[in-house]
Predict the structure.
Amino acid sequence: MPDRELPLVAHLIELRTRLMKIVVSILVILIALLPFSNDLYTFLAHPLMSVLPKGATMIATDVASPFLTPFKLTLISAVFLSVPVLLYHLWAFIAPGLYRHERRLALPLLISSVILFYCGMAFCYFVVFPLVFGFFTTAAPTGVTVMTDIAKYLDFVITLFFAFGVVFEVPIATILLVQTGMVTPEDLAAKRPYIIVAAFIIGMLLTPPDIFSQTLLAVPMIILFEIGLFVSRWIRRSAAAEEAADIEAAEMSAAATTVDDFDAEFKRAMDEEDKLNKQ
């Protein structure tokens, strides 16, 4: 059963308190990162800068871009880094209303979702960016110098970061769909061809309009779906085995109770017979 039930006003007050703590944590991280804004942008721009032709640089077409773009990156970085804090307060807010078996599943899923989101961003930075930017810079027509605007570049990479971070949550989504009973692993396995097509469509919508980026997003999505399907089957088998063990234990307990009752009845009958013999 849930630990406690609070009135609506108490829930709203607690929610406001936790939201304020989340905002404060973002502000603290933002203030700590502000002195390193330019360094953060240099780090973010490295995958493109490393493949630019000799003599080519990035440019700023707006007057305020040299200040606003690193600041925007710092703010977004603060939000991304505060995700564990956000999920902690989310967990602390909903945990009292969950049953024990729900908590046992929800907490690992929350932790896994954070790890997978960061893994998606890391995959995007270390694997996707070098391949995509290497392709784009070499595909430029002869006589065209690649000089990317810093604000446009930031928007481009943040879109890819978010896309890959969300896509890496596919195993979590698959497990939740199975655990809530909306689908079964068998249903998902039967619909695998449609899911593969959907992965490429999602890759087309979330990435720049080129088949290269689309494939780099769709292939990990399909692999992660298979991982989520495997874990879902394992969880269901474990739950079924645990349920069978509980049923067996209950049957053994019932059988033991029956034997004890029989022994007690037999003993009572023997005692009554002894009394009659003595009389």
User: Anything to note?
Assistant: Residues 73 and 86 are 19 Å apart (CA to CA). The chain has two domains: 1-165, 169-193+223-279. Residues 169-193+223-279 form one domain.
